[in-house]
Amino acid sequence: MKAQYTIGLDYGTNSVRALIVNVEDGREIAAAVWTYAHGTQGVILSRDPNLARQHPADYLEGAKVTIREALRVAAKNQRGFKADQVIGIGVDTTGSTPMPVDKEGQPLAFRRQFASNPAAMAWLWKDHTAVAEAEEITALARKMRPQYLAKCGGTYSSEWFWSKVLKCKRSAPSVYKAAHSWMELADFVPAALTGTLEPDLFTAGVCAAGHKAMWSASWGGYPDAAFLSKLDPSLAKLRANLTPRVKPVNQKAGHLTHEWAEKTGLKPGIPVAVGAFDAHLGAVGSGVAPGTLVKIIGTSTCDIAITPTRRVLPDVPGLCGIVNGSVIPGFYGLEAGQSAVGDLFNWWVHYIQPGGKTPWSHKDLDEAASRLKPGESGLMALDWNNGNRTILVDQRLTGLMVGQTLYTRPEEIYRALVEATAFGALTIINRFEDYGVRISSVVNCGGIAEKSALTMQIYADVTGRPMKISRSAQTCALGSAIAAAVVAGAYPDFARAQRRMSGLKEKTYRPNAAAHAVYKDLYKIYRQLHDAFGTREFKGSLHGVMKSLIEIREKARR
Amino acid sequence: MKAQYTIGLDYGTNSVRALIVNVEDGREIAAAVWTYAHGTQGVILSRDPNLARQHPADYLEGAKVTIREALRVAAKNQRGFKADQVIGIGVDTTGSTPMPVDKEGQPLAFRRQFASNPAAMAWLWKDHTAVAEAEEITALARKMRPQYLAKCGGTYSSEWFWSKVLKCKRSAPSVYKAAHSWMELADFVPAALTGTLEPDLFTAGVCAAGHKAMWSASWGGYPDAAFLSKLDPSLAKLRANLTPRVKPVNQKAGHLTHEWAEKTGLKPGIPVAVGAFDAHLGAVGSGVAPGTLVKIIGTSTCDIAITPTRRVLPDVPGLCGIVNGSVIPGFYGLEAGQSAVGDLFNWWVHYIQPGGKTPWSHKDLDEAASRLKPGESGLMALDWNNGNRTILVDQRLTGLMVGQTLYTRPEEIYRALVEATAFGALTIINRFEDYGVRISSVVNCGGIAEKSALTMQIYADVTGRPMKISRSAQTCALGSAIAAAVVAGAYPDFARAQRRMSGLKEKTYRPNAAAHAVYKDLYKIYRQLHDAFGTREFKGSLHGVMKSLIEIREKARR
């Protein structure tokens, strides 16, 4: 039998990637990347620094260009490869990235009169124009429908669907009025590829709807009309225009149209999976399973865990979201995250640029910091330079460093920053476990996981858990390819598909008992600072903080 | 009438300086500096990083070399100058810097068998070998004689007289046994120059005895024998050998001997003032007066104020010392200080070395930080990288920085460090005022006061008080020369001598009302952090700290 392949299409912030994966063993035989044509590095900006939009035309052009190029590369790399060996497509995207569409499901941005109107574009996940609307939604839900907030950590974000829709209503009423409905990018691409953009065919994914639009089967779908009307009477009408078909990623959005088959060179009629967010399918590509947390570590982190739906799961305060089937059907998908990880290290290296005439690189600092013992610097940091996503859900928090002397060196501060992100990671793990979601091992993916042995060892030592590294460097696209394999029928379920198609690198970082013991003491100090600066409830004195750090330092240096 | 001059001899940590000053107008006509010959830059070190000693021979050699050289330079600079126009000598030194002496008042280090024994040398102020002894003395005094602690901020320091003596008894018993008595450097030099080293002639200064040896006329001199015996029975005998003649700096220690006249070229018989500490005579040289605080700003600061003894002064908690007549007779001398000021800025510039391939100099950072508005960075620091001398008297405190974002820049951190030292300075001023010592203006001296307009403007804006700059760059030596003018009879008292011999630079930094208003809000946050990390009593939440800093930042950037 001839080998079978699937394609994972991964829509990032600046570019889209197509990855061709062997269904049997997960080998990645070809990839192609295309940077969106509009805006700056694919992002349309304005004088308002909070605004970030994308042009939907780039999404379609990107699918065409990258699939064609990946097929070309595959044919070169793999003797005898033919495009008709591709049996399915999966799609993951950033989100919440909603866009206004007309009655045919076509983006308003495709119309001439809206062609250069940012409000008619896709509102990129990191667009922060809707802060006031988010606060309004949070306040109303707290009063009227607390259950809506319970599943999204207690605070509705300015980055999410309803905030952006409401902001459009208020700031660009003509666009809002012209829109029949709104579509998430994760749903738009599969629908476009399968010719199901029209309302009576259109399918939305559980992942985007559940995590960003307060959709839940348990309360009958999207937020109820009474609630939405209180925000704005017109939202009840919009609600009626949203599709009732909201499905997980093991379902097909449809089949590739002849038109798209021609555009790309693929076989017409192959299934396209329902779309989901990059982090969620990244978790799939990293082998997420009950008891295994996947950390997608980049400038920030996204942490994904799953837990069987047969167990009753209490609401976990501070999590970005808990959604039935948002990662893998049959499991609750739980999403957490840290607002700055790689960005925090980048700040030290690129903004402060320590080290004088021969400035420290990441690699230099990694090496020098590796030679330090836990606790030896006497430093402790909070990893909040970009706020705290989980468990405090508070963007109005900032960084903190304590324990500096007149001899504190750049690599000590660097290590303290790495440790701070590790303490932040442990705080998330503890929150999962406190609410019954056991985390016995962690799979990491992303550049830092692959490149910084220091970071991974500190994560192991701080959390007391082995740190595994995902085999693939493109876990999001791989996860999409796995979804494609499932909808194409190559595997009956995700667990079996993951077992064959995803994997780990050989190297696992195991916790060192002595280091873990020191970090246990240090974590108590981290939690004191975390609670003192991050919560209203903390009432203790911090008189012991500097003294304990000195004692631990003296012990470490002995 | 021919002009009259006095000499100020200023014994620093690494060198001694002789300054020749015109008695009528304070003009400094010649100076000479000599680095001590023994040890590293004049300091004898060992494998124990806490040990710091000096060889007493350097003190005598230094007096000879610098006075001769200063006279030579004066003759060159000042047409017709003759050495016999010098009518008196004043001496200021580091302290507490005690040394063991024999029955004739000669340092034990001058004996062959002790010539290279560090215990027989002068125990330099920054020697920290006696930490355990200091704790023991503090504990005993707290129980038995709380009044002893009330005048020195509540904690007896390892840098002070009795700690060092007791440490010698325990760690070098043969030296201790050979010592008849112990002498402060501030007393040794005047006694040596005037041939009054022998016990029945020897005079000690109020400044050293009062600030470092728990001497007070109010309880009959040095700590009582019962108290000292509890520490060690032999200390009662030592107490009996300490001189009962303890006098302020308007008194003569004696008159220059023929031997010293010959050595130096000065006229024999001219008076030498009782010695005092550098900071105290530095305050005199800067024009200290009731209501005027003198800040001697170097790597750390020493803050000196005076208040008339006709007023009853309550004990001021956290001050390093309150001693009747230690600065100027008829006034209480009050000493406070900050453990790191210049050192804190040096840490950022020389240890962290921010700025990449073209690292920031102090001057660069000063300029860039000057362009920032108060509150604009959103940062707040505690100035405790070297502990906190006043008002917390706690060396086991460390630095803290809060408010960092992913865009925080080196000059913002630099400015936050400068502001932190300003907030620390205000905390000291407030403590003075809370206990009835009014501080309406501040005279600053030292390199930072002369070179950093940024620092002085921030000090004015934070404290809401004008910052004046001492005219002399050698205020300590100038203060000694003023004391010499008083003991030589050129002036009836210090106030009149200061009026003629000391002065201010033209430039005064005046507080800007708008900046002061912002700093008032910021200071509230500083005090929250100060109390939370520095005291046991603080019980509030710090939940508002980061948020308030963000609000102030947003307002400043508007």
Summarize, please.
The structure is a homodimer of 558-residue chains. Chain A has 558 residues and is an alpha/beta fold. In chain A, 40% of the residues lie in helices and 18% in strands.
Structural key phrases:
homodimer, Nucleotidyltransferase, domain 5, 558 residues, 20 helices
Would you write up a description of this structure?
The structure is a homodimer of 558-residue chains. Chain A contains 20 helices and 21 strands. In chain A, a hairpin with a 6-residue loop joins strand 16 and strand 17. The first copy, chain A, folds into two domains: 5-277, ATPase, nucleotide binding domain (Nucleotidyltransferase, domain 5); 293-471 and 512-558, Nucleotidyltransferase, domain 5, CATH 3.30.420.40. In chain A, helix 1 packs across helix 6 and helix 16 packs across helix 19 (513-534). Chain A has a six-stranded mixed β-sheet, sandwiched between helices. Chain A has a five-stranded mixed β-sheet with strand order 3-2-1-5-13, sandwiched between helices. Chain A is globular. The model of chain A has no long low-confidence stretch (mean pLDDT 96). The first copy, chain A, is of the alpha/beta class. At the A-B interface, helix 12, strand 19, helix 19 and helix 20 of A face helix 12, strand 19, helix 19 and helix 20 of B. Strand 19 (399-404) of chain A pairs antiparallel with strand 19 (399-404) of chain B, so a sheet runs across the interface.
